Amino acid sequence: MRFLPRAVVAAALFAPAIASAQVGPIVGDWYGTLDTPRGKLPVVFHIKPDGSATLDSPRQMVKGMAASATLADGKMTLTLSAAPVGFEGTVSADGQAVQGEWSQGGAVLPLTISRAAPVVKRPQTPKPPFPYRAEEVSYRNPASGLKLAATLTLPEGPGPFPAVVLISGSGTQDRDETIFDHKPFLVIADALTRKGVAVLRVDDRGAGGSDKGDPATAGIPAFATDVAAGVAFLRARGDIDPARIGLIGHSEGGQIAPLVAAEDPRIAFLVLMAAPGVDGTALLLAQNRALFIANGLPADQVEIMMKNRAEWFQAARDAQDVDDGRARLNAVLDRQGLPATSPQRAQVLALSSAAGHYMLNARPADALAKIKVPVLAIGGSKDLQVDAKTNLAAIRAALAGDADVTVKELPGLNHLFQTADTGLVVEYGQIEETIAPVALATIVDWTVAHAAKK
Fold first, then answer.
1. What is the C-alpha separation between 227 and 231, in angstroms, rounded?
2. pTM of the model
């Protein structure tokens, strides 16, 4: 999802030259789960025949951390290249497991890894056979020339049917908005199609079967043209009612949907899931603060980090162009003492991109004020990325002149609308539930009721 903070991972500068015979018995993939004070954290080791290795932490969305591995006297050792972090354990007699300890920052945690990949339970993921039709489709966005690939699910019968376009959150998402093996858009599409609403779910540009395009021009305005192309595709079909096409957007998708509807008065309705309502800079500052606090950082550290980020965001927001933004950000980072070689500097400088500048200067209320169609806006009370109270209030205020507006804060749900404990990103993959039944019912019931109206 966009609005997620990026993990900073140092790149490996070397690969160890270790003979194949030394590590042969441990070559391959190993899976384990660290039991940390903040919950269970899966890790995956990938060991190559030359002794080089990588480490993934899927729930932290970190992949490919460089490491080296050795095997001596029945003991496996894996050490990260960029930090004094590692694992050491004893290989079982059958070579299928290693029992040992994970060491990091002075802390030592027991860890057992094995060859067997864990079974991920996602009980809400729909399974065939389905009581509806599914078509693999593609179409071009005339604004960019890019081909977009999608799945269109259609209720049984000739139609014409009401329809919705699903709009994903930040990052390059596939048509199911897959994250941690959850497929929320597949779940929503299945539920809606069973109720008589056709659903178009689309691979973002650069995902699945869609063209990638130029990353320099990718951003919310460009993504809005992708959605408009999907709407045009649906209107050209005889089995879709062109007067009953709505948009359902999640997170950043909930910011894109009003932009499309503001330019296209024929859009029939909007569903905004965890959508931004406040200005972009305010949103990112609130998000960073909430995540720092939820992760247990001391208050004084939180204030220092927030001060630094406020300076970054202001520099990038006020820049005249990309070059000016980089110059301003480099000056701020130099003053803050961030080394020029720090991987974090590249992360911060990305704010100077056209997409970063747009995000920081975004004013969702401007598009929302133009909306004259029914709107459902929902948010989870444990959402740490888009605070429900603040953003729902802003959405309600921007839509105050419209009669058919439903705004709901759903207790105990996170940014993905899962029933959550802390709301932290690390929980997303730990929770078996893809979307809470109350959230799914709210979306489906409201959409079905409004899709029935012409």
1. 6
2. 0.84
